Amino acid sequence: MSTDPQDAVRLHLQSLSRYADEAADVVSEPAARYAHLVRETLERGGKLLYAGNGGSAAAAEHIATEYVVRLRRERRALPAIALTASTATLSAAANDFGYDRVFARLVEAYARPGDLLVLHSTSGNSANLLAAAQVAAEIPITTVALLDRHGGSLASLVDLAIRVPADDSASVQELQLAVEHAVADLVDAWFAESEGDR
Predict the structure, then answer these.
(1) In what order do the strands lie in the sheet containing 142-147?
(2) In CATH, what is the architecture of 5-196?
(3) Hey, what's the torsion of the CAs at 106, 107, 112, 113, to 10 degrees?
C-alpha cells in the first residue's frame, strides 16, 4: 500500500468506486424489494427496527434517524428505532442474558407483527444478530439483512438478504450505507408525494 496519504485516499476511493459499479448491477433489484417492504410496513402502521454491531450499530442509528427526521423532503415523521441506541438497555441485557442475546431481547420487547427488522452485518455471523433473526421469525415479523458478498449464516435466516459485492469491512459498510440512503430516498419521495396529494 502507498505510504503517500494522497495516494492512499485516492486508492481507497477508486476501490470503492469499482465496488459501487458492481453493486449497481448486483444490488439494485433486492434493494428495490427492500424499499417496497419499508413502504408497505409504514403504510400499514408498522415500524422499522435496526440493529448491528460496531460500525454497523452506527449505521443502524444513522438510518433510523433519516426516517424519524427526514432525508431530503418535508414529510411526516416515520417510526424507526435503532435497537443500539440505549447503552443502559444494551448493557443491562448483556449483563443479565449475555451479549449474544441483547438484540433478541430488544426484538422481543419492541417488535410486533407488521414491523420490519433490518440487520446490518459485515460477516453475517454475529451471534446476537442470528439470535435476533430467530426471535423475529417466531413473532413473526419480516426481516432484511445487509451483508457482505458471502452473506454468512444470517443470509439464510432472513426474508431478504442484500449482499454487497465487497470483502473488507470498510467497503462493505460504505456500500451498505449507500444502499440504505437510496432506499430512504425512495421512501422519502413516496411519503412526501402521497402527503402532498392530500
Answers:
(1) 80-82, 48-51, 116-120, 142-147, 160-163
(2) 3-Layer(aba) Sandwich (3.40)
(3) 180
Grid cell 438478504 in the structure block, residue: 161
Rounded to whole angstroms, the Cα distance separating 98 from 93 reads 7
| Range of lowest pLDDT (10-14, 123-127, 143-147, 181-185) | 10-14
Verify cis geometry, omega within 30 degrees of 0, for the bond prior to 165: no
Beta carbons of 34 and 160 less than 8 angstroms apart = yes
pTM metric for this prediction:
0.94
Phi, psi of 92 (to 5 degrees): -65, -45
* Domain map (residue ranges) of the chain: 5-196
Q: Give tens-digit pLDDT for 11-65.
A: 999 999 999 999 999 999 999 999 999 999 999 999 999 999 999 999 999 999 9
The tens digit of pLDDT for each residue in 149-176 reads 999 999 999 999 999 999 899 999 999 9
Residues in the chain, overall count? 198
